[in-house]
Description:
With 340 residues, the chain is α/β, with parallel strands linked by helices. The protein has six helices and 17 strands.
Amino acid sequence: MAKTVVLGLSGGVDSAVAARLLVEAGYTVYGHWLDIGLGGREAAAEVAESIGIPFSAGDIRQELETEVMAPFQRDYLAGRTPLPCARCNPTVKFPALFRRAEEVGAQFVATGHYARIRQTEHGPALCRGAHTNDQAYMLARLPGQWLGRLLFPIGGYEKTQVRELARGYGIPVADKPDSMEICFIPQGDYATWLDQRGQVPPPGDFVDRDGNVLGRHLGIHHYTIGQRRGLGIPAAHRLFVSAIRPEENQVVLSDGTDLMADAVWGEALNLLAPLEEGAEVTVRLRHSKTETPAVFYREGSGGRLELKLPARAPTPGQLAVLYDGETVLGSLWITKDRRV
Length: 340
């Protein structure tokens, strides 16, 4: 029986090369484009035609609104900084691809993420991409039972290598620029997007740690913990956002010396590999290359991370992703921290 896979085909270079690699590996590949209401179907269809794979499209606009866009809005209004891609993957994107897989009888689902699945004694494990552009962080909320059906064909490649492969294959989007924005906010201006949706907080006070008023802010949804740019407050030294108080409609500014934390709490632990109480791990507290050594302790449905080295500005609404070497152990939604 031929190996069959549904591939999320975005119209970009990563998913296009992933499709071609799967074809070369002997898979029957079904390209599936997900419609979020902002166009792009033609580019994805052109890629599918150039590779010679069947193409289909699925409308995920309602699911995206319910599971990602509305929570994104609520998080900012509550003073949190949301991470929409990490929320979308387990609730919208991958479920849509699995639905298509059921329709065509495909055993596997694939995407163009820079991540890898590795077989271990405990079963399939999610692992970081082999090189600098690792995206396993954004996949850390996927249910563990899905891992055995996932394929990430470009996880062992650098981005430059992927583009070279695309040129060699004659893929039409080989030199298409990367899209770094939130998919449903293509211009990247999330504050304007929130303003257009309405029901945003009004302007309020910038204050220092003692409550002294320093100036006026545009609304708490314009700010995130650790932010330095765009504050517009004159001072003898640089100012940073050190806290957001939605109840008082205040944004707290400081010189940044109070941003370091030595412990982080999170909720909704999503385990992807065995994780013992008191285990020594490394943790990413944002989508960056920085990892911090920590000790994990379970607390209710979440957990606490005692950081061996202080970390700067852990931010409620972001993910704490736990690693053992290259393996993703699990993740927590950050709720609070303990400042040094």
